[in-house]
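Let us work through a complete example step by step.
Step 1: write down the sequence.
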Amino acid sequence: MTEETQTVDKAHVEQTSEEPKLPGHESGLHPQPEWQPRYPGSGRLKGKVALITGGDSGIGRAVAVVFAREGANVAIAYLEEHDDAHATRDMCQAEGAEVLLSAGDLGDPKHAQGLVRAVIDRWGRLDVLVNNAGEQHPDEDITQITPEQLQRTFQTNIFAMFYLVQAARPHLGKGAAIINCTSVTMYQGSEELLDYSSTKGAITAFTRSLSENLIKDGIRVNGVAPGPIWTPLNPCGGASAEKLEHFGENTPMGRPGQPNEVAPAFLFLACEDSSYMSGQVLHPNGGTIVNG
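Step 2: predict the structure and record it as tokens.
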């Protein structure tokens, strides 16, 4: 067996060197993404504890802050962007929330287990799990996708969700909610994001199947499938220069979305407003009709 093929036999693949700027720092983006909640809080998550992956920037930051405004204490998991994470912590604390920060690779099951353990040690409960973290690597041809990249993308985008749900399951009771971030690319496909889009298809199937598995215990599982949203994911290496030049222009609204236009979908699925919904996916995507 060659050294190249041996990489797929590893249980855990470290970050690839192909996109050194990923996952990227929000503090360096121009213009800055809009994360600010657009309305006052009404206590819809008062007394709850939420764990948000990829919570340091982008959609995750907007979700963390709106959850904090609605009364939740939040645990923010991120890879390594400490400046973004500290800024998001300050934003959540300004809303009155207690905040736990945790840096590390969620594709490592031991880290996922330790993260959940830290949440329980801090607050003694877990009510909402938001699986938002993800990575993507554009390639013009399927032959350019290395075994390391393929496993790394699946490891971050879908394996980590399994690891976190497995770790969280003993602590999730009746009324708990799990929200997974899929993508419009799951429904439309993406010419340059073959592996990423495939993981998003897996996430949608995981969401529907996990809902069937947990609904009898009163745990709801839903998903959100954003369209093109202005976050560090694309400008920091997750999209080609050609795609970035016209990012979001192919939507019916003709523009990319902002994180604070997506976060309310997560809030709706996290709180009792969506008490009769499970196994569903919401589509904040600029008007693109996906029939899914």
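Step 3: interpret the result. Residues 1-7 have pLDDT under 50 and may be disordered.
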